[in-house]
Design goal:
Length: about 250
Amino acid sequence: MTMKREEIKYKAIVGHVMEMTKKLRRISTLENALAQICETALAVIPGDGASIRLFDETREHLLAAARAGQSVHKSKSARFRRGEGFIGWVAEYGRPALVNDTSRDKRFARRPDQKRDVKSIVCAPLCSGTEVFGVLGVTHRESHAFAHEDVDLLQLLANCAAPSVELARLERLSLTDALTLAFNRRYLERRLTEEIKRARRHESALALIVVDLDHFKLINDTHGHHAGDLVLREVAFTLRQNLREHD
C-alpha cells in the first residue's frame, strides 16, 4: 500500500513538472512564467507560500519577482541584499538548502516587514551555467514541514525552469528599468508603434494612460532618495500585479 501511494505521488509530481515545462514554452511574458513556476512549486511541495526573487542589474539585491500562496512580507517589493538572510545565503553560495526550525538557524533573518511566522523554508538557486540569477523558495508556518527530498525536488524544478526564465529575463533586462523592473522608453516606443498600427488596422480605439505620483518630490526631499526608490518599486510591482497581460 505504501509503495502504491509513493508511486501515485511520484507520478503526480512528474505530471506537474511536465505540465509546467509545456506551459513555459508557450508563455510569452516573464511575469507569467515566474507565476507558473511558483504555482507548480506549491503543487509539489507542501508549503504555505512560494516566491521567486531575481538579482537586479547590480547583482547586489534580490528583488521580489513573483509569488503564489501566502506572502511572508507586508511589502510586495521587499528585497534582500546578497548574502542577507536564508534566501541571500542560497543566492551567494549557489546551493539549495533546507531549514526546518528557523529559530535555530543563524542564516534566517526575521525582518521588520515580516507579517507571518516562517518556521520552515526550502530554497533552490536559479542558475545560468555557474551563475546564480535568482532563488526559488517555499515557506511553511510550522516547523519540520519539509523533508530532505523536498530540497532535491525544488532544485529539479528550478533546473527545469531556469532556461526559460533566463531567456525571458535577459530580453526583459534590455527593455526594463533596473530599479523598478518596469518597461523602459525603448519598450514603449516599440510597443506603442505596434498598438497604433493594430488600432488603425482594426479601426478600434487605443488608450494610453499616463500616471503621475502625487508629491513624489516631497518624499525624496523629506525622506531621501532611498525612500523614493522604495515607493517607485512598490508602485511598479502593484501595477504589474493588477494589469492583464494584454494591457
